[in-house]
């Protein structure tokens, strides 16, 4: 598909320091089409908290008229911020009052988006909604796109922030979307209950960044950590990862180094893991440095908890691990079954202990090549092509 105009609204701002499906998809779509990527407007509560993170800093500067709202990234890709804020409404009771203020927010937001799209001469717009259930709920009414596509890449329903309204609103948004695309079979199964045009399109990986043939330099803070290094890289959060499992595993393997790279939540920050001499917490690293740090690990972990959030979640980091040819050990979930021929899937600590030994011993060139080829089949190009095919079938 080429020559079309896309508007993308979602949960992850362009300036977020971690990997983002929506951003990678936007870049791929923009190769042959025009894309306006929209950062969601700041609400008053976020402004009052005044946390100048990278993803908030840019939007605050636009709000304060210190920067212009529209940025041109390439000849076919723009990023839009808002010179205004919206109501903070998540704490409102579910129902009429929430819907009233949410509609006001949506109207204000999409009238401005429409104005910018007109200035860019966008026509017959395809609107791609990246899991943005509240702030894009009335987009179809105010933006009036040629096609509305809802991208369900996470199950938000168990999260505390979303619990009050999402159970009612997400099925309604799925139902009124023209097309729903999801990055795992389980997420698509849920969506199909409300819209039969719901499809699993899989996941993508940045093959240029995660290339096993690149010459990575070992960072100094990693160089001093003894081999072998068994590690995880990503957000270290207790609603996705099992700290007790990691603790028992590391404690049982005192001669191995366990490296945790990423931002910790309070549970992990206060966990007994920090008392083990063979566990190393390195903190967050810049997004462009993730492949470098990942390359220093002999075995890569995805030690997830089993819950509503993780069971249907597609862990993009596993594709990234495999693209570098790394042995992967992960908790067995419904979605991880997709990786069963290329990763060690575990149910408990004992399985993890056995898998670590196997991963270190059975790591031939052939195994590495198989992992890389499997990950390469999940390119963002293939992912975008799947989206295009479903769009064309929906519009035919």
Description of the molecule:
- The structure is a single chain.
- The chain is α/β, with parallel strands linked by helices.
- It folds into 2 domains: 5-204 and 379-395, Rossmann fold (3-Layer(aba) Sandwich), CATH 3.40.50; 220-376, Glycogen Phosphorylase B (Rossmann fold, 3-Layer(aba) Sandwich).
- It has helices at residues 21-29, 44-49, 54-63, 96-119, 139-143, 163-176, 185-192, 220-223, 243-252, 266-269, 290-295, 308-311, 316-323, 349-361, 365-376, 380-395; strands at 5-10, 34-38, 70-74, 77-80, 126-130, 147-152, 179-182, 198-200, 229-233, 257-261, 279-283, 299-302, 328-331, 344-346.
- The strands form 2 sheets. The chain has an 8-stranded mixed β-sheet, sandwiched between helices. The chain has a 6-stranded parallel β-sheet with strand order 11-10-9-12-13-14, sandwiched between helices.
- Strand 3 and strand 4 form a beta hairpin.
- Helix 1 (21-29) packs across helix 16 (380-395) and helix 9 crosses helix 14.
- The chain is globular.
Rg from Cα: 22 Å
CATH-derived architecture of the largest domain: 3-Layer(aba) Sandwich
* Class from helix and strand fractions: alpha/beta
How many helical elements? 16
Named CATH topology of the largest domain: Rossmann fold
Q: What does the secondary structure layout of this molecule look like, with pairings?
A:
Blueprint: E1 5-10, H1 21-29, E2 34-38, H2 44-49, H3 54-63, E3 70-74, E4 77-80, H4 96-119, E5 126-130, H5 139-143, E6 147-152, H6 163-176, E7 179-182, H7 185-192, E8 198-200, H8 220-223, E9 229-233, H9 243-252, E10 257-261, H10 266-269, E11 279-283, H11 290-295, E12 299-302, H12 308-311, H13 316-323, E13 328-331, E14 344-346, H14 349-361, H15 365-376, H16 380-395
Parallel strand pairs: 1-2, 1-5, 2-4, 5-6, 6-7, 7-8, 9-10, 9-12, 10-11, 12-13, 13-14
Antiparallel strand pairs: 3-4
Helix pairs in contact: 1-16, 9-14, 13-15
């Amino acid at each position: 598909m080429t020559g079309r105009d896309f508007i993308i609204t979602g949960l992850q701002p362009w300036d977020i320091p971690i990997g983002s499906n929506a951003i990678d998809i936007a870049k791929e779509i923009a190769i042959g089409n025009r894309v306006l990527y929209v950062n969601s407007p700041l609400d008053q509560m976020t402004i009052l908290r005044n946390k100048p993170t990278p993803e908030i800093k840019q939007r605050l500067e636009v709000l304060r008229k210190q920067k212009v709202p529209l940025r041109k990234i390439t000849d076919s890709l723009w990023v839009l911020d808002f010179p205004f804020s919206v109501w903070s409404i998540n704490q409102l009771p579910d129902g009429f009052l929430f819907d009233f203020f949410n509609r006001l927010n949506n109207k204000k937001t999409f009238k401005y988006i429409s104005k910018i799209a007109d200035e860019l001469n966008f026509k017959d717009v395809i609107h791609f909604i990246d899991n943005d259930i509240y702030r894009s709920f009335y987009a179809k009414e105010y933006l009036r796109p040629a096609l509305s596509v809802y991208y369900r890449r996470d199950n938000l329903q168990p999260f505390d922030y979303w619990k009050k309204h999402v159970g009612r609103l997400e099925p309604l948004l799925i139902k009124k979307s023209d097309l729903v695309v999801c990055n795992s079979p389980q997420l698509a199964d849920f969506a199909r209950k409300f819209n039969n045009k719901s499809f699993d399109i899989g996941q993508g990986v940045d093959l240029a960044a995660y290339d096993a043939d690149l010459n990575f330099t070992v960072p100094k803070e990693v160089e001093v950590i003894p081999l072998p290094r068994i590690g995880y890289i990503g957000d270290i959060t207790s609603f996705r990862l099992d700290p007790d499992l990691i603790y028992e595993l590391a404690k049982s393997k005192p001669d191995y180094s366990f490296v945790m790279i990423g931002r910790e939540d309070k549970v992990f920050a206060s966990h007994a893991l920090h008392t083990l001499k063979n566990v190393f917490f390195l903190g967050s690293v810049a997004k462009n440095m993730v492949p470098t740090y990942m390359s220093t690990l002999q075995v890569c972990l995805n030690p997830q908890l089993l819950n509503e959030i993780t069971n249907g979640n597609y862990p993009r980091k596993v594709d990234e691990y495999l693209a570098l040819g790394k042995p992967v050990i992960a908790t067995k979930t419904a979605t991880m079954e997709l990786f069963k021929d290329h990763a060690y899937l575990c149910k408990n600590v004992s399985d993890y202990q056995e898998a670590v030994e196997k991963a270190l011993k059975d790591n031939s060139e052939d195994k590495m090549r198989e992992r890389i080829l499997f990950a390469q089949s999940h390119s963002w190009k293939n992912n975008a092509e799947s989206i295009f095919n479903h769009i064309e079938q929906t519009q035919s």
